[in-house]
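Thread: Newbie trying to understand structure tokens

Hi all, I'm a second-year student working on a class project, and my supervisor (Dr. K.) asked me to get a predicted structure for one chain before our next meeting. I've only ever worked with sequences, so writing a 3D structure as a token string is new to me. If someone could post the tokens and maybe explain what I'm looking at, I'd be very grateful. Here's the chain:
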Amino acid sequence: MRYFQDPQSNTCATCIRNSTSPAAVPYGPGGCPENFVFEQREVCATPPSEGSFQQTDGVELARCSSLGAGWVTSRTIPQGCTANTSSGTVVLEATKYVCTACVPAPVVKQWEEFAGPFNRVCRGAGPTDNNPSYFEVRQKVPSVEACQALCLEELGEEGCKGIEFNRNSKRCELWKRKEGIWAFSYPQWEGFTCLRYGWPGKFLNPVNGGLDQACRGAGGQNSAGFYVVEAVRHMEDCRARCVAAPICKGLEFSKGRCEIWHSEVVTSEAKAGFECLRYEQTCMLPPREFLVQACDVWLRLRYLLTQKAHKDIQIPNEEGDDGVSEDEAPEDEESESTEHIMEFMDKLQKMDKSHLSEAQRKKMEEEKKKKRLQALKFKMRQSWLKRLHAVLRHSWDLLSPQTRASLLSYAATDCGTGFRQIVEEAMHDQRDLEMIEETGINGFLARHLSSLALGLAEGTRCVTWQAEHAYERLGRRP
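---
Reply by user tm_fold:
Sure, no problem. This is what the structure looks like when written as tokens:
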């Protein structure tokens, strides 16, 4: 079951404020919602006139309603249990209530796709970190499922941190890196899959909004016995360590510091520069701050792609010399497609140039060179966009219609009508990736926003890390 805030009034319609999931929901004829399980409890109650009593048969002295929202009385048993006075001398019969509810299913270790169901290879501490000590290689493994089974069989529940599998070569890597898998890379060849095993990161949800919140245990306590501290640079590194930990109930991240909580994260305390996430097997819309930050990051990234993506890139000329840089190349017209440019060049090639003067031929060659540069740059832009677009392009399809509608409303509120149009266009973009230009950037922006709603990238630091990763793919830093 999913819970959403009403983006128009900024109030909760079917959720608890500040991204807190309910402890229980009513058990109905259709059974329990997704990620909830059925639970039954028995309680006893005595008439108020009888005084204060203590239970003797191991059940609570209460009514179903006192267990919290979502608990419903399914059966009443008069005189179903006994209660003694505090002195223990008087025995009275009390009514027993059988209470039912659907409670959040406990989070268990499981497999999850890392960085999307696309061509990805696993990496350790960064996109280039592929230390052979992180994994063991098995050849001629028939399927990704067989690779998963080998990991659990040979490394065990605690030792197996994930797998990398290639469906073409049948090569299987059993990942055992203690800190887990937090980075990925784009392989040169096709057929790769990267899967993590552990506490599923998709269920790490922000506590009281997540940002500027420090995790606290029962009663607001902050004991060093609640967690293990590790040094990290990025939020995603902290998340990966939580996923890979023997026990992880949640995490707290601040600059350079990651707390892996093995005790329950009950609440949080406002503290600048901190982020607090805990495991809740529900999927909730993040607070407005995440969407605002994402909007800003990706609008800036969009500008980079359209204006500066090929700065300092050397494009060889026809004679094969050192090439012409972007600074020396003429400005291309965004409206001209590769097809039109190539059509022009084809006509130019077939023209009879014998009657032209030297100046005219030189001008024609310069025009040809200009068009060729435009075609090459356009093709390179498509290649960059294809890679960037693929990072999280699956996220939008995983969202429910309600979440999509909420994202559109947030985009309209926080980024203006122009950004709303961008997201709407991306929703209906079914064109081939090779045809991506502006639409491709739009789709990338929208799908990255949706990844936040899925809980895949909570927090501004995570968004910043992903933006940095995108910049690195372009060979530039923000």
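A couple of things are worth pointing out once you decode it. Residues 286-338+367-478 form one domain. The two ends are 39 Å apart (CA to CA). Feel free to ask follow-ups in this thread.
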